[in-house]
User: What shape does this take?
Amino acid sequence: MTVALVVVSHSEKLADGAAELAAQMAPDVSIVAAGGTPDGRIGTSLERVMAALEQAAGGDGVVVLTDLGSAVMTAESALEFAGEPEGVLLADAPLVEGLVAAAVAAQGGADVYAVKRAAEGVFGSAAGVPASSSLSAVEEGSVTGAGPEFTGDFELINQAGMHARPAAKIAGGLSSLDARVTVNGLDGTSMVALMTLAAGKGSVLHVEAWGVDAERAVNYVGGLVQAGFGEP
Amino acid sequence: MVLDANWAVKWLTLCAQAMAEHRVWLIELDRAIGDSDHGENMDRGFQAVLDKLAEVPPETPGAALKLTAMTLMSKVGGAAGPLYGTAFLRAAASLGDSPEVEPAAFARAVVAARDGIVARGKAEAGDKTMVDAWTPAAEAAIAASADGAGTALEVLVAAAEAAEAGAVATDPMVARKGRASYLGERSAGHRDPGAASTALILRAAVGAAA
Assistant: This one.
């Protein structure tokens, strides 16, 4: 059982398509689309959203992704109607990128908060803001002021280098660990950030990690890279 | 005049009539600064409310407003759906199960509706939205019902008149929220459609009690 996702869009086609796209990278995650109005118009429907929430319930929590403004309001209203159910969170993220990142995190076994963070993490990385800028604040605040607790450098050996699937594997796995991880200075739990590295075969990934699972995080990335992500 | 379930049903029925009558006007207001669907959406939403009221006649004013909230959120489609839905939902919660609504309780329900819209839409006074009709309406209703002074009709009239004045006051405003905000300065000189429909709704409440 994983965290389930609900997609609220003004367009039925958009919701269905986004769910289909994300499902490709997250075969075990329940992704329920709630797009359009019951009479086939563009818009959002409380009935549809509430039905989707019900369908998605029963697992390890639900993260809801939305498109334009009134979809957010409809999703909020649905939660208010349902009495603000526990473990159901709204993610403030771009619909398609956020959904894919959330689906990958859920597939990797992340909890509902980590899945929401994965979706929302897309914002910062999409804007090209390196995740290390927030990490340096942590370093300054720490007692030792030391650098990362674990680091590793791994050369990409697979032909295609860093593309969507490897990025999804790295981000998905890291988001379920209790660690802050950067890959070449970018947020390692953000699939989009990893893809922006545009790292080809022969490129070296420099991994830095902080936190309880820091060592596991570095080993996890190293293991994937050295296995060529299971690709030629 | 007692504000009971009959009054509430009549209010919502008059809302549906008003939306049908002003459908084209609301569409034109929305065409000027929005996406021209407000009149059609409100008309459709309140027609659906009429159907629901006939299906399950509500026993209290609160139940009537809750049914309205659910229906508007499901049927309107545009931003007005969750905004009005939240307004009616918060008003219903404020009224609770009481079979009759005291004037002061109606005033508190208008305040709850206004607060719900602000919470949901994140708009402030002066943004050229329905908040600019709801806020003066809530203040006027509270003032009219203070210390048990006003009758039910007086409180309803105070809310309706304040909403109407508030809607007119949106004409010169420059929109800072919603679709109209994309137009910037060009949004001035047009009435906000949501403020206009708010005035129609609160005016209908008077008609139901007259």
The interface with chain B takes residues 37-38, 41-47, 69-70, 73-74, 76-77, 80-81 of chain A (CB under 8 Å).
